[in-house]
Amino acid sequence: MLSNEEIIKIVKSFQTPRRFLHTQQVAKLAVDFAKTNNVNLYFAWLAAMLHDIAKEFDQQKIKFLVKEKIQQFPTINAAHGLAGAIFVCNELNIKNKQIFNAIANHVIPSEKCSKLSMIIYCADKLDPNKSKLRIEQKIELTKLAKRDIKKAYLVIKNIFRNNFF
Known about the structure:
Largest sheet: none
Distance between the termini: 30 Å
Mean pLDDT: 94
Order of helices and strands: HHHHHHHHH
Number of strands: 0
């Protein structure tokens, strides 16, 4: 098993400083959401740290990782979640199904998913440095996610239903 320091070093090696700042923000939110929604804190941190590991992979690498499943995605970039989950499983030897699904489904959410997947999806969309939502919306949705991740997930999923980033 990789140490937290090793995870951070690996993630940094695949991300620009700006993307890594986003990853750190998502990890902080994910842990906060996990604390109040009875989800394993380490799993929340780990899935959040790894959720965008493939975000800056070139298109050929994403296609190689997801293979024929690329047809399921509206854009190649939308496949970075699944590509990242496969990379984490194969290259980092992290085989936990919940973590795999949380990474794989953070771009295009699944209809049925675990609280961990909901947490990663919501934390990714509520990063304070992203500009897709007004600050007031982020504050209210962050409060909701801390109280009830399922309700927050449904609201955020509805807001972002056609945005795959």
